[in-house]
Structure formats: structure tokens, C-alpha cells
TrEMBL record:
PROSITE patterns: PTS_EIIA_TYPE_2, PTS_EIIA_TYPE_2_HIS
InterPro entries assigned: PTrfase/Anion_transptr, PTS_EIIA_type-2_dom, PTS_SugarTrans_NitroReg
Domain annotation PTS EIIA type-2: ranges: 46-192
Name of the featured protein: PTS EIIA type-2 domain-containing protein
Species of provenance: Candidatus Wallbacteria bacterium HGW-Wallbacteria-1
Superkingdom classification of source: Bacteria
Length: 193
């Protein structure tokens, strides 16, 4: 690409910071099934008919903060992360200013903070897509988390520029979404250098 100076994203995104099939919706469905199993027996004489649910499975909206918590947790084992909860607060506060769901099924939640020692990334791939308040109002399938110390402007902006260039390519996005293993996803990222 013209004017494109590629950065090896795999230098900042380790395999253990990639999660395939992130499915918070599925986890919520399991919780709901457990609630149903523990629900009162309709044949019991003290049984009271519950109110109908306001939402069915098709209308559950994933809590964005829960998703961000999962993403921060994904990278928190790294020695580059000083304090997981404070990093999460920075990411949530940044997301509160304006959504980082940039469209085309991609979100790039990010923050610049002293809660990390150096630039670090995480990636979650969610085939089903999750609601993220994206600019195009469509579900997000690829979530790239970025965190950097505040004094690392040059690297931060270079990686953000490179990442946005890569995700403009629909075939790149689709290859990542279709990955069956973390190794595959890592290979797709490394092959872009």
C-alpha cells in the first residue's frame, strides 16, 4: 500500500493474548438456563406465575464493560501490565468518551496510561458478533485492545495507523474471523509484515 510502513503487530500481541470465539452471550445463556433449572416448580402449590421476560435470547445486548473486562483480563498476566483494575478503568473511561467500534465489524478499545510498562495488545475474535455501539451500528467481530504508556506517542500512533490500514482490507478481517486456532490468527497477523 502506498505510504504504508508495516509494523510487526505480533511483536506487541502475543499468542496468549488472543482469544478465539469470545462468547459472552453464550455465557449469559448458560446462566439463564441455570436460573430456569433452579426456578420454582409450577406444580408446587405455592407457585406464583412469573412475569414474562422483557428480553428473549435474540435481544440480549452484551454489556460492553463486561467485554472490556474480558479483554483486559486477557493481557493482565503480562509483566507489562502493572495493575489490571486501574487499566480497565482507563479503557472504560476512554470508551465512555466515544465508542471505539469503528465499523466493519471492528473495535479498537485503547488507552494511554502509566498502568502499563510498554505497548501491549490483545485480540478477541467473536464470530457471532457482539453489540459495541459501533459507528455503523453493526456487531463487532474483531476487538483489538491496545494499551501504551502516555509518553510513547510515536509507537502508539504508528501501530494504530498500521492496524487501521490492515483492517480496511475485508479479506484480512475475514481471514482473522475464520481462524480456527490461536496459531492461525497469529500467523495471519505475522503474514501482514
Amino acid at each position: 500500500m502506498k505510504g504504508f510502513d508495516p509494523v510487526d503487530l505480533s511483536r506487541y500481541l502475543r499468542k496468549e493474548h488472543i482469544k478465539l470465539n469470545l462468547n459472552i452471550v453464550e455465557a449469559r445463556k448458560i446462566e439463564m438456563e441455570e436460573e430456569l433449572l433452579n426456578a420454582p416448580d409450577p406444580d408446587d402449590e405455592d407457585y406464583v406465575e412469573p412475569e414474562p421476560p422483557l428480553f428473549d435470547d435474540e435481544r440480549i445486548i452484551v454489556d460492553k464493560n463486561l467485554l472490556l473486562e474480558e479483554m483486559v483480563s486477557l493481557i493482565s498476566d503480562s509483566p507489562l501490565v502493572k495493575h489490571e483494575k486501574r487499566l480497565l478503568k482507563v479503557i472504560i473511561d476512554r470508551e465512555g468518551k466515544t465508542s471505539t467500534g469503528i465499523g466493519s465489524g471492528v473495535a479498537i478499545p485503547h488507552g494511554r496510561t502509566h498502568e502499563v510498562r510498554d505497548f501491549i495488545m490483545g485480540l478477541a475474535i467473536c464470530r457471532e458478533g457482539v453489540e459495541f455501539d459501533a459507528l455503523d451500528h453493526k456487531p463487532v467481530h474483531l476487538i483489538f485492545l491496545m494499551a501504551s504508556p502516555p509518553d510513547n506517542d510515536t509507537l502508539y500512533l504508528k501501530i494504530l495507523k498500521n492496524l487501521t490500514q490492515l483492517i480496511r482490507d475485508p479479506s484480512f478481517r475475514q481471514r482473522l474471523i475464520n481462524c480456527g486456532t490461536v496459531d492461525e490468527a497469529y500467523f495471519v497477523l505475522k503474514s501482514q509484515v
